Backbone:
């Protein structure tokens, strides 16, 4: 009888998960699809549409054509997202999908006031070009659910996905013909695979696994080839590798062979494949090594040209470290002094976030598996947040998109604990049980 009840409970949990996923998909599509044709025009969208002509050059084996380097933006941004955008636009519109915007002479469209300044043909192409970003956003929400479920439980995963869905920056970024939501999807996929490694006794962080390390290299290379700051996933991988072996590193007599095979071996395998993928996906590097060095000099010129958008590390720290900014992070300004205040009650959001942080610290004192999941979430947050403080030099709010899921997950933990405290008096599902790591499953 007990086995029968247990089997029914497992079946019910499985159907409940299917229901949550279907519900999340329907809600996501309902929220994001209308915004695809109403989201404000962003000045960089036309540049990415024009730059996606590189897919046509790639399929025609024109590796050295001027399209690859026709402007500074084209030279600086990697190619993977452009390929996907080109794959999406070419079959429906052909070259007309680009001539409608006057590619490559699209500069004037960067300064138009909004969608009303575009003609109908341009609008149709723009709305069509936004669709891959929207689907990448919906897929990201599904991955967020699974990450939260694996680290804690289905309720926290579901709340995290919903909080992310209704985040203003997420809604904007997933309805732009730009690579930000694709990068988020790749980064979340890497994070999900990392959480799966936590459940294995012999994992990529504690043993030398060249094939697995090579797979990580492919994923990291794809992320970097989407946007350069996709390298943050690689940083997270390195930090986790060090932390998993910290006890070994702190011993008076190091086991050099173990250190080499665990950290250095995986690092070399991952880095080698990652560099190879970046090289393979970016034909602008194929001509010679000097093409790669020119890329760095172009970056220097680009940063000089965008000094009015730039902020120093000290300014970045001042911007991102106040308590309310932990939650209000997506309100980062685009131009100096031009703030876009979206949350009406940032203090309440900050309080919930801090409750989540406090609860995570409490979980650290619980059993090993809860400690492992909690530690992972805190490291994920710490690596991204500190990297943004030191790495992101511009005030473009879309750059902060990868922070949104981890911040909302911590907030979801806070909401869960508040609901759980109230539910103890009412015995209300789904807050009846303490979050428990699912990493052992």
Residues:
């Amino acid at each position: 009888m007990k086995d029968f009840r247990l089997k029914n409970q497992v079946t019910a949990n499985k159907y409940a998960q299917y229901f949550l996923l279907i519900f999340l998909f329907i809600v996501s599509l309902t929220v994001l699809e209308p915004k695809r044709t109403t989201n404000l025009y962003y000045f960089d969208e036309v540049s990415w549409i024009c730059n996606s002509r590189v897919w046509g050059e790639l399929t025609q084996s024109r590796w050295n054509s001027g399209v690859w380097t026709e402007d500074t933006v084209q030279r600086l941004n990697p190619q993977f997202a452009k390929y996907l955008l080109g794959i999406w636009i070419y079959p429906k519109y052909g070259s007309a999908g680009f001539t409608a915007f006057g590619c490559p002479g699209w500069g004037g469209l960067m300064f138009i006031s909004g969608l009303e300044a575009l003609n109908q043909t341009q609008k149709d192409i723009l709305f069509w070009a936004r669709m891959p970003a929207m689907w990448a956003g919906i897929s990201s929400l599904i991955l967020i659910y699974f990450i939260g479920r694996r680290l804690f439980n289905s309720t926290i995963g579901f709340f995290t996905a919903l909080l992310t869905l209704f985040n203003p920056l997420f809604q904007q970024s997933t309805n732009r013909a730009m690579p930000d939501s694709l990068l988020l999807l790749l980064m979340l996929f890497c994070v999900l695979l990392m959480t799966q490694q936590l459940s294995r006794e012999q994992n990529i962080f504690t043993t030398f696994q060249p094939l697995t390390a090579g797979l990580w290299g492919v994923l990291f290379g794809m992320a970097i080839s989407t946007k350069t700051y996709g390298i943050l996933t690689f940083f997270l991988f390195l930090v986790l590798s060090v932390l998993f072996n910290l006890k070994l590193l702190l011993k008076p007599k190091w086991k050099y062979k173990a250190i080499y095979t665990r950290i250095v071996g995986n690092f070399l395998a991952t880095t080698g494949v990652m560099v190879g993928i970046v090289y393979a996906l970016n034909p602008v590097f194929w001509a010679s090594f000097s093409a790669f060095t020119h890329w760095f000099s172009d970056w220097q010129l680009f940063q000089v040209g965008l000094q009015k958008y730039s902020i120093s590390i000290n300014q970045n720290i001042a911007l991102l470290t106040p308590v309310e900014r932990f939650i209000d992070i997506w309100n980062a300004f685009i131009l100096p002094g031009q703030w876009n205040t979206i949350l009406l009650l940032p203090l309440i959001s900050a309080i919930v976030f801090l409750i989540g942080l406090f609860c995570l610290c409490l979980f650290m004192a619980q059993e090993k598996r809860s400690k492992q999941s909690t530690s992972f979430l805190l490291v994920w947050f710490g690596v991204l947040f500190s990297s943004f403080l030191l790495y992101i030099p511009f005030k473009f709010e879309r750059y902060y998109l990868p922070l949104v899921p981890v911040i909302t997950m911590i907030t979801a933990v806070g909401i869960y604990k508040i609901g759980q405290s109230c539910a103890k008096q009412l015995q209300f599902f789904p807050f009846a049980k303490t979050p428990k790591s699912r990493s052992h499953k």
Summary: The chain has 21 helices and no strands. The CA atoms of residues 10 and 319 lie 47 Å apart. The chain has two domains: 45-129, 178-426. Residues 2-35 form the longest helix (34 residues).
